[in-house]
Amino acid sequence: MPQAKPIDPRDGRPARDGAEDAGATLDLLVALESDGRQTQRGLAQRLGIALGLTNAYLRRAARKGLIKMREAPARRYAYYLTPRGFAEKARLTQSFLRDSFGFFRRARAECDEALRAAVAAGHRRILLVGASELAEIATIAARDHDIELVGILDPARNSDRFAGLVVARGLVQAAPWDAILLTDIAHPQARYDELAVAVPAAMIITPPMLRVVPATTTP
After folding, report:
1. Are the beta carbons of 126 and 180 closer than 8 angstroms?
2. Residues 185, 195: contact at Cβ < 8 Å?
3. 125 Cα distance to chain centroid
4. pLDDT, tens only, 28-85
5. How much is the pLDDT for 122?
6. Alpha helices of the chain — where are they, by DSSP H?
7. Quick check: 19 pLDDT over 90?
């Protein structure tokens, strides 16, 4: 008979293990980067955890220097990620993607959904950005959709091909494309931010598992 988890004194729920704790911290940083003016109650609902536990995560993130708090009108607070917070979000994202159980199944499902949306929007030529395990899975998923993967953009890649596709060092060198599918799991937010400066954000498809915060404006 499995042993029950110890109770977390912060909210009376079963205590979280290391993976759950890291996942909640990552979700918190993503939520605050997206909108730092959310109420703690709104954050709790978005994260799916108790209000008291949300408060505990916020306090701990502040103690670690991951976020800063500033008082806002109506006795509310605004939260901002610090440079350390952005770095920790990137580290946790990469760790989550590489170590999470069921990575292939989730990645395949999200690639399928992304490519299905691309076809619905009239995009047939897709450029992958980031030579990674996710890119390999995208090449498998592409076989079930009416699209063409025109290549992979990855400036750091030394070889000329990856997963059967030609590797380009920059957008100018890439074959003509209609939309971009982000597959960089090492630095997804940084890569997205670079792309969003050069092309309309609406043309960049980002699988949810990458935890990318979309741009609010387009070039």
Report:
1. yes
2. no
3. 23
4. 888 888 878 888 888 888 887 888 888 898 989 999 999 998 877 666 778 889 999 9
5. 95
6. 18-34, 40-47, 51-63, 83-99, 103-120, 133-141, 188-198
7. no
Q: Give the chain's domains with CATH numbers.
A: 18-99 (1.10.10.10), 103-210 (3.40.50.720)
Task: Kindly state the tokens that stand for 6.
Answer: 């110890």
Contact 181, 115 (CB under 8 A): yes
Rounded CA gap, 44 and 149, in Å?
A: 40
Where does residue 29 rank: exposed (0-12), middle (13-18), buried (19+ CB within 10 A)? Answer: buried
Q: For residue 14, is pLDDT > 70?
A: no
Name the token pair of 167. Answer: 């590797």
For the CA atoms of 23, 24, 27, 29, the dihedral, rounded to the nearest 10 degrees, stands at -110
Give yes or no for a contact between 30 and 89, defined as CB atoms under 8 angstroms apart. yes
> Could you report the per-residue pLDDT of 79-132, keeping only the tens digit for each?
889 999 999 988 888 787 777 667 888 899 999 999 999 999 999 999 999 999
Token pair in block for residue 117: 């949306």
Give 176's DSSP letter. Answer: P
Average pLDDT of the chain, as a whole number: 84
Query: What one-letter code names the amino acid at 75?
Result: R
- Nearest Cα to 16, choosing from 61, 50, 41? 50
Distances (CA, A) of 143 to 99, 137, 149, 194, 206: 26, 11, 10, 28, 19
C-alpha neighbours within 13 Å on the C-beta side of residue 26: 20
Q: Could you say which DSSP state residue 153 is in?
A: E
